[in-house]
Specification:
By secondary structure, the protein is of the alpha/beta class. Helix content is about 25%, strand content about 30%. It has seven helices and 17 strands. It has helices at about 10-25, 55-70, 120-125, 130-135, 150-160, 180-190, 280-300, and strands at about 1-10, 30, 75, 80-85, 90-95, 95-105, 110, 130, 145, 165-170, 190-195, 200-205, 210-215, 220, 225-230, 230-235, 265. Strands 1, 2, 3, 4, 5, 6 and 17 form a seven-stranded mixed β-sheet that branches. A five-stranded parallel β-sheet has the order 8-15-9-10-11, covered by helices on one side. Helix 1 packs parallel to helix 2, helix 1 (about 10-25) packs parallel to helix 7 (about 280-300) and helix 5 packs parallel to helix 6. Bound molecules: NADP nicotinamide-adenine-dinucleotide phosphate. The site of NADP nicotinamide-adenine-dinucleotide phosphate has 20 residues, from helix 5.
Length: about 300
Amino acid sequence: MKYDLIIIGMGISGVSAAIYAQNSGLNVLVLESGIPGGLLNKINKINNYPGHAEITGPDLSFQLFESVNKLKIPYKKAKVSEIKIEKKQKKVITDIGNFECHFIIIATGRKARKLGLEHEENLLGKGLSTCALCDGNLYKGKDIAVVGGGNSALEEALYLSNIVNKVYLIHRRDAFRAEEALIKEVREKENIELLTNRQVTELIVKEEKLDKIILDNKKELEISALFTYVGFEPNIEFVKNLDITNEEGYILVDKNYETKIKGIYAAGDCIKKEVYQLITAASDGVSAAIHIIKDIENKKIH
Ligand code: NAP
């Protein structure tokens, strides 16, 4: 069976595109290798998505999945390994088989960037975490540290400060990228200690768990956990053969969200753009879908 449109990724961007594609009668398929919502599942509080005064990431993810089910949008759990272009047809190669289509929207989002320190990979789940919402409760009453100076690091440091005894917030500069309101809140929080102009240089392991960390001034911090929020990298391993990314790995698209390859679009956090927010990811997905819908209507590809 040949699909009009395959959407890769069931985060907010992919689901937004899928809703419009399904409502316009396209023969659409959504592929997702993980859980619906993607990184959204790691966000503890969202208060900047219109229509929800406040909602957790997992709850919003659940609502996205409810939309998929309510609108009977076809989806499959599948890991995409490659996209092949054969004349005007596109073939999506996955671990459960191959799928042919006319159009593709890549909406695979981003993953947490690593600090690049020894033991980082092995310590995940053993004192090192990229998800305060998932792991915060394991460290009730303990001392922990958060690394990063963006919105994520400050928001999650605040969330953790209500669970743990003390939070060290370690940032490599003294100016933060985060919004002013968050910086103010963090500064006013009694159990958050700011360690600015500091970098984590070593993770010390004891009995296969994180024991302590060492900073660039040689200071040792005895902590039960380190939460890293040092930005993100796009999930684009499967498009490496297409040469559609910039040097940082973000997919380059035009104003219609189409890549330089006709019929392959990209939307959300995996593209190069100015603003990475939930609302803009949703908007990217919708714009990409509408351009495809119009293209199909104009050319009567069916
Ligand atoms: P970000 O804004 O890219 O910030 C990453 C932080 O990590 C920066 O402070 C950076 O330091 C630091 N960093 C990067 N590599 C590092 C390394 N190797 N060692 C130590 N520190 C390192 O990432 P984010 O906070 O996850 O936010 C990503 C996007 O999502 C942003 O556009 C943000 O506004 C958005 N977001 C929005 C909300 C919200 O609206 N409430 C919440 C979360 C995220 P430098 O500053 O020195 O580069």
